[in-house]
Design goal:
Blueprint lengths: L13 H31 L16 H12 L2 H11 L1 H5 L1 H6 E7 L4 E6 L2 H22 L6 E5 L25
Parallel strand pairs: 2-3
Antiparallel strand pairs: 1-2
């Protein structure tokens, strides 16, 4: 009868022990590093995006403003505001000196313009259809339906013994 002896596993030698110890130390260091990284991210306000862009990345100011305008539905008022800033380019320097846009009614799509004399108000009324077409070409069809031209308001006259109650004086500058 043969008696078989169970095979004994050789005990790890010095180099094998060093490898096992090194592997364990690396895993512990990696675990400490991951914990430190998570702590650091928590202090900074959460995870940061990596090399690829996502919604948390900073935006350029122009992009942020355009996104806000489109999210809020302010395209038409913002476009008309741009027109008010470029008024001299649109109507010409001479007309822009005497006629100033006052406000834009988004619901009625009416641009209100104040003139400094009745002569310039009359001139603008004659040019209004061409100006509406030019504005709609610039802003998109239907943005401006009509231009309302306001006559100049004269200075209130508070002197004189025969002034009517509630009177503001003449409604024209005669200029």
């Amino acid at each position: 009868m043969s008696t078989e002896e169970p095979q004994k596993t050789p005990e790890p030698s010095g180099i094998d022990l060093a490898r096992v110890a090194l592997r364990a130390a690396k895993e512990q260091a990696r675990a400490r590093g991951d914990a430190a990284q998570q702590k650091k991210q928590a202090r900074r306000g959460g995870l940061r995006s990596g090399a690829r862009a996502d919604g948390r990345d900073p935006m350029a100011l122009g992009s942020a403003i355009n996104r806000l305008i489109s999210d809020r539905g302010w395209e038409a008022p913002a476009a008309v505001g741009g027109v008010m800033g470029r008024w001299p380019e649109i109507v010409g320097e001479n007309l822009a000196k005497h006629c100033v846009p006052q406000k834009y009614d988004e619901d009625e799509r009416v641009l209100v313009v104040q003139c400094d004399s009745t002569a310039w108000a009359t001139q603008l009324r004659h040019l209004a259809p061409a100006l509406v077409a030019r504005l709609n070409e610039d802003l998109g069809q239907g943005s401006v339906r009509m231009i309302k031209v306001l006559n100049p308001g004269g200075p209130p006259r508070r002197y004189g013994p025969l002034r009517a109650p509630g009177s503001t004086g003449p409604g024209d500058t005669y200029g």
